Recover the amino acids of this structure.
């Protein structure tokens, strides 16, 4: 009895689950792992299975009463500074006009194309749900491709960590050199001017820039603000 009492104090009432907004953001870690472990062809072949797992999760939430979904696509993984650190003397056409790995972004965009198609089908399969497809890729790429125009430093620069002279120390890490000296990976002085926090994750300032454009519906299908995300259930 005591256990149930504690749970009731922490969790919302059952009927409130139907009033919640469920944001679903899956894909980048799967793609990143695939890029490290398998070839592009095998990774592309796995995309339908990855998306099926996402769809099953949404369907399960729907059976439990969820009705309002924000489904994010995946970002431009080929623009992550952690990826670009390892690239020296790339051949012509390897990078796009903004210095991102073209083949990796092509895979991310193929994932997004298939995801959007499945989201459209979900709207038919779950007629009482309001499902918004959110183009995270376009928002992030828009920031990366025009970072200085929006008050940020060059997009490939990393705020936290040490990455010089072929030596890489992760954010907060310490590397002991053979000569007895140590190199640490500290934070930059002003994170608000950086897009990348640690080479993979975005800074608070960058996330704020991105979020401010997502919530007004500029990158959504249908193009509605987050305040109207429950359009099909109201």
């Amino acid at each position: 009895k005591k256990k149930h009492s504690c749970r009731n104090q922490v969790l919302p009432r059952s009927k409130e689950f139907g009033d919640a907004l469920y944001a679903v953001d899956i894909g980048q870690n799967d793609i990143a792992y695939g890029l490290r472990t398998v070839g592009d062809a095998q990774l592309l072949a796995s995309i339908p299975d990855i998306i099926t797992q996402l769809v099953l999760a949404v369907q399960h939430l729907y059976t439990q009463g969820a009705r309002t979904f924000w489904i994010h696509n995946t970002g431009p993984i080929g623009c992550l500074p952690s990826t670009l650190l390892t690239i020296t003397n790339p051949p012509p056409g390897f990078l796009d006009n903004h210095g991102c790995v073209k083949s990796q972004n092509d895979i991310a965009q193929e994932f997004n194309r298939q995801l959007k198609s499945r989201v459209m089908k979900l709207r038919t399969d779950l007629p009482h749900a309001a499902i918004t497809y959110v183009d995270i890729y376009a928002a992030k790429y828009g920031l990366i491709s025009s970072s200085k125009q929006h008050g940020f430093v060059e997009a490939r620069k990393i705020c936290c960590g040490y990455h010089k002279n072929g030596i890489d120390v992760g954010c907060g890490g310490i590397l002991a050199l053979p000569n007895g000296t140590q190199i640490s990976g500290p934070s930059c002085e002003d994170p608000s001017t950086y897009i990348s926090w640690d080479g993979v994750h975005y800074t608070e300032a960058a996330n704020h820039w991105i979020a401010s454009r997502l919530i007004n519906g500029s990158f959504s299908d249908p193009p509605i603000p987050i305040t109207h995300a429950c359009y099909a259930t109201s």
